[in-house]
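> run fold EAL domain-containing protein
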Amino acid sequence: MNRSRTTSGSNQFSRSQSQQQYLTGELTIQIDNLPHIAAAYGEAAAIIAEDVVHQLVLDIIGALGTVTRLQSGQFHVAGPRIAKQIIYGLLPTVMGHPLKIREDAFHLVISVTGPDFATRPTIASERSPWLGGRQQSRYPAAARTQWIAAYRADMAAAAALFKTLNDDHVDFETRPVRYAGSCDIILYHELCAGIDGHDIGPASPAAEPLRRLGLLRVLEEHVVQRTIDALCAAPDLRLGVNISMESAVLDLWWFNVCERLGSAPSVAERLVFELNGIDRLPATADAIDFMTDIKRYGCQIALDDLGPDHVPVWSAGAFSPDIAK
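> ok
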């Protein structure tokens, strides 16, 4: 499975750059979890999944370009403005909705690579070290059975959550974030997503199956879009939205969000990105670049869970946040 990541010499979606370069040229589309699907649901399911993605790419691209099947789970796409078609069509359609084969339902994980950009592969390959043909014989049958059961359980949890999301049955509530020096001063309100009173944010137990499967970004992008919708509807509102360190990289997943923020500065200046998970992941160059570029749109950056019981305050210096919580 190809896990290389191509980067350009500068931030991918800087406002000083033209986004046109990301709308033309050539792309490689990869089904990152195809070996996982084959192992957990059978080779026939993986073949059907590959055929479905191939047909969907053909339908999305249409006469704009050409689609060529490469090695297992890979497709080469060429043509003008194809990246935008893939962003608005393939990624949310495939990753946010299940593929149903008889009694099984599972989600596919897609990454896209171009000459100057890539989406970050998010599959936790360490959960399945025996995937890969000949290596399977090195691992006991009991270990494979246990992994399959865990993978299918995670996928069932993800499918249930995304069904609730797609049926618009997720509850959104706002919680005030107050200034430490005076509880009377509200800096902004955090928009929190939940189901039946249970939080489904990136730090919640409900998000862990999505994180393990590589699907967390689908949920986070949806919540960010809903937050922008709320800001557009209420000009006096100031909202924060929580995203994970795994998502803090400016790639194609954020293209639509960046377009909306760039076209509505009055909305961007009222949006706070709360970065969660710096206690688990280091201050990567991707994350620092993400925050730098997001701030160029006018947004603010907040870091979650700082303090002696969580993340040391001194370790947040590399991020240069506007707000520390």
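The CA atoms of residues 198 and 206 lie 8 Å apart.
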